[in-house]
Amino acid sequence: MTSATILGGIAGPDLTDKERDFFRAANPWGFILFGRNIDTPERLRRLTAALRDAVGWDAPVLIDQEGGRVQRMRAPHWTEWPAPLDQAVNGDRAIWLHHHLMARELRDMGIDADCAPVLDIARDDTHPFLRNRCLGTDAESVIRRGRIAAEAMFAAGVLPVVKHMPGHGRARVDSHKDLPIVEAGLEELERTDFAPFRALADLPMAMTAHIRFTAIDDAPATASAPVISVIRDRIGFDGLLMSDDIGMEALSGTPAERARATIAAGCDLVLSCNETISQMESIVAAAGLLSAQGQRRGDRALSLRTAAGTGEIADMRAELRALGGLAA
């Protein structure tokens, strides 16, 4: 059965009967979890198992777990991680340990894909909602640390989802609330913002940016065929491309209209984080089923899932603590 082009969220820490019935009928490609879904480890493991049981296959379960402000699993049951840009000052080994240990915690809960690392370049004027989520302030450092982070996650059995293609670092407003507009020329964007995504274009999954590039199109990147063409042709990314959350205010229209525009532009999947069941039903109706190309990309991504990582966690935590990357 072909999957619907939706990554769906749920309302709370347990899967309701209505949510289960919807997912069973719709067969989404995967699921996305948020803080509202996280309680105890035992309850979270039951939830990830219940989601997969609802669709009858080993569908991926995603989460946003970066460190700093963006982490859905928190103390007392899980580690409080520093923001990636703060961790970067502790060196490349700290970046590897940070992402590997974080991914080990995810995989232990049945979560096998993480919306990280952020490959945007932090600038002096990058909006605070994003800046310390980045891995560096220049393309070279972001490329190096992004590769390290992705490999660390793979080694833990978790798939990385790089974000936000083709580059969000120039945003000076929060795309959760408004549409950022970038007026840099295409040549400058190619040299800077696009460079990390081009260097890591072999990775299997990526998330778009809700941002308008005036040098390319008037529409937000997520809903822009010309921008998606840049991602595919100039950046060279042939992996599975999902939208950022279509509920963010950088986009306009109903959930169904946003979803339809996202798929029409060339994205493979629509990320629906906070919609109701009826709204998700409208998204599925508007966006349709995964295309043959999307299915190929999705199958390739899932083929890269491996067993959970090995290695002594306590020793790695001690090493990261000695590097200054983990609180005592």
In short:
The chain is an alpha/beta fold and 328 residues long. The chain contains twelve helices and 13 strands.
Outline the structure in words:
With 328 residues, this protein is of the alpha/beta class. The protein is 39% helix and 14% strand. It contains 12 helices and 13 strands. The protein has helices spanning 17-26, 41-55, 84-88, 92-108, 139-155, 186-191, 195-199, 225-234, 255-265, 277-287, 292-303, 313-322, and strands spanning 4-8, 28-33, 61-63, 65-67, 70-71, 113-114, 159-160, 162-165, 181-182, 205-208, 212-213, 240-245, 269-272. It has a 9-stranded parallel sheet. Strands 4-5 form a two-stranded antiparallel sheet. α1 packs across α2 (41-55), α4 (92-108) runs parallel beside α5 and α9 packs parallel to α10 (277-287). The mean pLDDT is 96.
Can you tag this structure with a few keywords?
globular; 13 strands; nine-stranded parallel sheet; 328 residues; alpha/beta
Q: What does the radius of gyration come to? A: 18 Å
* Average pLDDT for all residues: 96
What would the principal axes of the Cα set say about the shape?
globular
- Runs in which pLDDT lies below 50 for 5 or more consecutive residues are none
In DSSP terms (H or I, runs of 4 or more residues), the helix count works out at 12
Spatial separation of the terminal alpha carbons? 49 Å
- Which percent range describes the beta-strand content? 5-15%
Secondary-structure content class = alpha/beta
Percentage of residues in helical conformation:
25-40%
Query: How would you write the strand order of the largest sheet?
Result: 7-6-3-2-1-13-12-10-8
| Topology pattern, helix = H, strand = E | EHEHEEEHHEHEEEHHEEHEHEHHH
Task: Write down how many β-strands occur, each being a DSSP E stretch of 2 or more residues.
Answer: 13
Biggest sheet overview = 9 strands, parallel
